[in-house]
Amino acid sequence: QHGMVWESQLEWIAVTNTISQRRLLEKCAELGIGECVKVVDISRLLAGAIIRIHLGASVNLPKFRQLGPMMPDALLADAAFVPTTQYSLKVR
């Protein structure tokens, strides 16, 4: 079953945390390849893209595309200071 993993040149595989990876991680651990799976947190990337789109800023700028998971995002940090009058969804 997992002989293909051992025969390949694959060192690791990245998956996102957009859905739970618990079962995948458990299965890989059972097969002895748990260290081959890296779960990447993309929540900040999605939040940054959402706030940029909401504010009319571009997500196609090299500066945004170069942001890493642990790098500070000034626009995302300032998002808490956006007046509620600029929210597109009104809570009643």
What are the main properties of this structure?
mainly alpha, two-stranded parallel sheet, 92 residues, single chain, 2 strands
Structure, explained:
The protein is mainly alpha-helical and 92 residues long. The protein has 5 helices and 2 strands. A two-stranded parallel ribbon has the order 1-2. β1, α2 and β2 form a beta-alpha-beta unit. The radius of gyration is 19 Å and the shape is elongated. The mean pLDDT is 77.
Count of distinct strands: 2
Number of helices: 5
What is the strand arrangement across the widest sheet?
Answer: 1-2
Task: Summarize the helix and strand pattern as letters.
Answer: HEHEHHH
Q: What structural class do you assign from the helix and strand content?
A: mainly alpha
Summarize the structure.
The chain has helices at 3-7, 22-30, 43-55, 62-65, 74-78, and strands spanning 13-16, 37-40. It is mainly alpha-helical and 92 residues long. The chain has a two-stranded parallel ribbon.
How are the SSEs ordered, and which strands pair?
Blueprint: H1 3-7, E1 13-16, H2 22-30, E2 37-40, H3 43-55, H4 62-65, H5 74-78
Parallel strand pairs: 1-2
